[in-house]
Amino acid sequence: MPLYVGLDIGKKSHMVCAVSEQEETVLHPFSVENSLSGVELFTAKIKALAPLDQILVGMEATGHYWQCFFIQLQTLGFSICLINPCQTNHFAKTNLKRAKTDKVDASTIAKFLVKSKPAPTKLPEELTMVQKELTRLRASLVKNRSALHNQLLGVLDKAFPEFVQIIKDPTSEKAFTVLQRYPSATALRKAKLGKLHNLTYGKKRHKIGPALASALKKQAKQSLATHYAHTAYEIEIRFYYSADKNHK
Predict the structure, then answer these.
(1) pLDDT of 51-101, one tens digit each?
(2) C-alpha distances in angstroms, 217 versus 131, 155, 182, 189, 191?
(3) Distance CA 229, CA 248 (A)
(4) Out of 65, 72, 95, 110, which could bridge 6 as a Cys pair, Cβ 3.0 to 4.6 Å?
(5) Domains of the chain from N-terminus onward
(6) Whether the model pTM is above 0.70
């Protein structure tokens, strides 16, 4: 006898319900932990009701909490369908006369399987999944770095707005070296010219040099920025540069 099993995925636990081909409840809803012991409990209860090749399991593809449970069950030989939540919501409204705000539960998912009989989902090859995860990580880091740059520019506009007239790219190694040591117009006004032009940056240890050091000092003295709250801005700038360096 075919068995249709709905899994309502949660962060710490999942609700399970099983129905027959006639949509009769074979196993009333019960909870399993999102853990190996939860997988074992699920397997014991479900396999006691039907042969493995007669069981179809369904779960919604929301968030990421489904993934480990899915892989464990697939490894054990279960046929599992990842379902688009839009499909189960539409099914609930049109077939079960649910209100729009009613939550789709394990029973609804099981009944959806009976009506739709979707093909089991196959996860991509492991290498493909690795590439996908790393691509997602890179995109996230790029996005975070872009946000850091914008925040840095915002603080720099208050600490030393004319800085980019001298060093065009505030995210460069040159800018990093200067602003880590002297992160405001106030700090640069007080800087010793010799120490400033002897600062080195990059792998080849280029020097800031006397010309650039003099230009920075001159611009700092003429800067619109005052000493007001400069300590806070200096802390922020050092923080953003440190965070940005960790993202590289």
Answers:
(1) 999 999 999 988 889 989 999 999 999 999 999 999 998 888 887 655 444
(2) 48, 19, 11, 6, 8
(3) 29
(4) 110
(5) 3-123 (3.30.420.40), 147-247 (1.10.150)
(6) no
